[in-house]
Write a structure and sequence with these properties.
This protein is 34% helix and 19% strand. By secondary structure, it is α/β, with parallel strands linked by helices.
Length: 490
């Protein structure tokens, strides 16, 4: 049984390995020169940058994935738990380290507000319970119709998830200080959402980063990509780079081949890990599309991002591995992303700085640092060199002001990546970096389907599908798809 995987992102690489293990003859075709999709690697002047995901969270999901092969992540890459997990720079010059030691975090929250330690302890207990519920009953199952929700256990537990309450409301009931609220909400931005449009059950993120920990794979997230490629090769997967799919030929409601500039790949099934809207609107014939263009136009997209990959000629010692810079106009920042009437390049955004060289000696030459500077942008905005330079200058000035040192003059290599780059390199719809955000109406059944509604042997994996955004979610998506294909065809 032949399977062609379109796209070598985390979704494509993981589903390829699973299907190959299940007995399929698997070929992965990828438009770019390397595997990883949005987790591409950029190298310049001795500096090495993971271009996309930079947080290794939910280690249990990675463990469960590799266990399908009788393996462990540690068979491919060593893991280190970061401490501090991340550093937060507040607008009032306060700096807070979220620690790998829960007792230190309880003390930190007590410093934020009276009774903060007990509030955090209760919050973490609630988020852990919700995490267990979502992992046991929600994430590893597919949803095809409303009847998939009529499971007595799911319904009983689902009520506890408060699906109609947003995260902002949930958090405000539990913490009074601005600092505590922001620390437990910041991570929702990495899921492409806003506290106002994200269901409250995503408070699980605090359990994930404080209880389960923030980890780093030796060699960066690129080491995870390399592990998936190696795993696939062990089961005979063929990888073809610099070979973009140009069409999926459909005959009689069945995909017969995937066409590329180098020829056609005959196949029995197709799994698409390319950008979902792009594949629907550009690879499939119009009468074979599950969703019309109007469907995507109505969806709430996750942000795009402005990213500066910087190599600097010295160590910026005041920065930890992960750093969050929170500006006073927190809410306005989300409005410039999610409110169509206010969408614009931000004037004073909160931003994130990743310094992998703080942990990884292979990321930069000795005595220097790699910086990954990121600010979210609304998808679909105009993207010009002038707008990029203005935002870059602002972010660098703010970072220098907050840290109290000159950094701009230390930059020896620089690459800017933003909206049009996401569209060009990854065929990303309107330049989104992450796909669809996690609103209630874009969760589970209401995300784009894993299986095509029009073509019997076309399936989709990746961040657009259930369960959603992030590397762990993508691995789960692939496990759902692979299980269905192996059960059906195996």
């Amino acid at each position: 049984m032949r399977a062609v995987i379109v796209g070598a992102g985390f979704g494509g690489l993981s589903v390829a390995a699973l299907l190959a293990k299940g007995g399929f003859d698997v070929t992965v075709i990828e438009k770019n020169e390397q595997p990883g999709g949005r987790a591409s690697v950029h190298r310049d002047g001795g500096f090495t940058f993971d271009m996309g995901p930079s947080w290794y969270l939910m280690p249990d999901v990675y463990d469960r994935f590799f266990a399908e092969f009788g393996k462990s992540p540690k068979d491919y890459f060593p893991l280190v738990r970061l401490d501090p997990s991340y550093r937060v720079f507040f607008a009032d010059d306060q700096i807070a380290d979220v620690s790998a030691d829960i007792e230190k975090n309880l003390a930190l929250f007590e410093s934020f507000e009276p009774g903060g330690a007990e509030k955090l302890r209760n919050y973490l207990a609630e988020s852990e319970e919700t995490y267990r519920t979502t992992m046991d009953d929600l994430l590893y199952r597919d949803y095809r119709s409303i009847f998939d929700f009529f499971d007595w256990r799911l319904l009983a537990r689902g009520r506890k998830l408060r699906p109609f309450e947003n995260l902002e409301t949930y958090v405000k009931k539990r913490f009074s200080s601005d600092q505590a609220r922001k620390v437990v909400q910041y991570s929702i931005g990495f899921l492409g959402g806003s506290p106002k449009n994200t269901p409250s059950f995503y408070h699980i993120m605090t359990h994930i980063d404080m209880n389960m920990g923030v980890w780093y794979p030796e060699g960066g997230m690129r080491a995870v990509v390399e592990a998936l490629v190696t795993l696939g090769r062990e089961f005979g997967v063929e990888y073809r780079y610099n070979e973009p799919a140009t069409a999926i030929d459909v005959e009689g409601g069945v995909a017969r081949r995937v066409v590329t500039p180098l020829g056609a790949h005959e196949t029995d099934i197709v799994v698409v890990n390319a950008d979902y809207p792009f594949a629907e609107m550009h690879l499939l014939p119009e009468n074979s599309r599950s969703y019309p263009a109007s469907y995507w136009e109505k969806k709430v997209l996750a942000p795009s991002t402005f990213v500066a990959y910087l190599g600097v000629d010295r160590e910026i010692t005041k920065l930890a591995h992960h750093n969050i810079f929170l500006e006073p106009d927190w809410e306005e920042g989300f409005e410039t992303i999610f409110d169509p009437k206010k969408a614009a390049w931000p004037e004073n955004p909160s931003f994130y700085v990743n310094v992998p060289s703080r942990t990884d000696t292979t990321a930069a030459p000795g005595g220097t640092d790699t910086l990954f500077l990121l600010a979210p942008l609304a998808p679909g905005l105009e993207d010009t060199p002038e707008l990029r330079e203005r935002l870059y200058d602002h972010l660098m000035s703010r970072m220098e002001e907050i840290l109290g040192e000159n950094i701009l003059d230390a930059v020896v290599t620089r690459r800017i990546f933003a909206l049009s780059d996401f569209a060009d390199r990854y065929n990303a719809y309107r330049g989104t970096a992450l796909g669809l955000t996690h609103t209630l109406r874009q969760t589970a059944l209401w995300r784009p389907a894993h299986r095509s509604k029009k073509v019997g042997n076309v399936y989709y994996t990746g961040q657009y599908t259930h369960p959603g955004i992030g590397v762990p979610m993508t691995l789960i998506s692939s496990q759902i798809v692979a299980r269905e294909l192996i059960d059906h065809y195996g």
